[in-house]
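Final report, closing paragraph on structural work. Over the funding period we assembled a curated collection of sequence-structure pairs, and we close with a single example.
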Amino acid sequence: MLPTVADVLALDAVRRGNPRVVAGADRLDTRVRWVHVGEISDIATMLRGGELVLTTGVALPDEPDKLADYIADLAAVGVSGLVVELGRKFVRELPRGVVKAAEEHGLPLIALARETPFVQITESVHARIIDIQLQELRASEQLHEVFTELSVEGASPAEVLGQVARFSGRPVLLENLAHQVLACDTAGRDTGTLLASWETRSRAVSPDERTAYDAASGWLITMVGARGQDWGRLILLCDGEPSPRDIVLAERAATTLALSRLLERHQESLERQAHGTIITGILTHAYADPEEAAARARAVGVPLTGRKLVSAVIRLTGPTDTALGEQAQLGELAEAGAAACRVAKLPALVGTLDQNHVGLLLPLPPRSTAEAALNALADRLRASYTGTFVLAAGSVVESIRDVRRSFLEAEQVADVAVRQPDGRAFYRLPDLRLRGLLHLLRDDSRMQTFAERELGTLLAHDAQRNGDLTRILRIYLDAGRNKAVAAQKAHLSRPAFYDRLRRLERVLDTDLDDVESCLSLHVALLALESFRREAR
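Its predicted structure, as stored:
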């Protein structure tokens, strides 16, 4: 910390001049950035603020108004104080106008009764300022070394906060954006007292700047995050206004925490990126020889040669976590899939395929079946991952050349199963029956023509009248043409539901008691849903 005016007055070089504070006695805690000797009346134009000005006054004007302006100019530029040696310009005391002006502007004004070599004062003060700056530089270098080492070692938040508490001697906490404490070091204080009603207290302190001190709570707060995405706050509990060193300490710790989290995520994603690259290379025929893909897979610990291979796809079924983000949520699902494979002792390539799918390529262990491997994977994944998803598998293949076909099949199965999951551990194409067939044929113009021919009139009718007859038809057919059950599912009375069915028959010009007509309509509805989902 820079010395104050009071600190300067306590120096031997100043005390020998018998200093007397004649104005601004309540401002002696003002910091002195530098000492400047000046005898000209317009010295303020050469200053930047924070200087302690020494003068004999020999060049100052005699007019009281100009002397008052001299004081006002010094105060305006932000000098820390004015020291005037008596005996040359002013013999026994300073003019009352000067003292009054200094008092009005809150400028510390000191009179030296004895002649004092100004060079001794400047040398003493500057030596102290430079010594303080050297101490701060050494402290800053120490902080840099300690926190750089913590970053390189991938230190935990608890270790980082431990160093902050050691350097500052104060409690320090790390919280997330929901004001939940992730880690803390109490610096010897009672933990219960420190964390009492924490969320309520924390929510009441919301500074606008990334690093700020809140005097009411005594908290020094700095945001923690990187790449424009803040995820927490580091809070240093101070007894008074923090020093510049405290601010540097808090910001350096926050940077270390942010970097550690980025490195941790990067390390976790490196494996996923490597696996995803291999899978994508197989699917796009990027490798001229399948052996190249096998060699790359072996390099990441997944043997593909001489094994039966099964492709699997995981797809989320629930809504996207808006706080986490779609891509990040898919990344978490990929990490969960990789962890599940490790726990189940299934070597596998695991990586994201696109915006919707996580792909897995599992070389089946000897004497292991695809069903056993997929069941084990599904059990571990559901035990560790809290989100909802479907696991779909393609056919078992004998070589890397056929993996692409197996993956395409798994993706198609996942896209259909995600519409109406029924709780199976995993899905394969035979499990989807008619839905699977319709999904495979969704791009066929003949299927699209069929659906339009069967339902076009009804869809146009609902569009023109904002009606719901298409929904009623779907409910009726899903209920197995049981009118009583369908009415209940539609939340309509039976007479009202029967009336809707009669209107449906008129619009479609068909008999809904005819089994073949209803079958045709049901297939068209399933096909229509497949088209619409693909469009989305």
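The mean pLDDT is 85. The chain has 19 helices and 14 strands. We thank the funder for supporting this effort.
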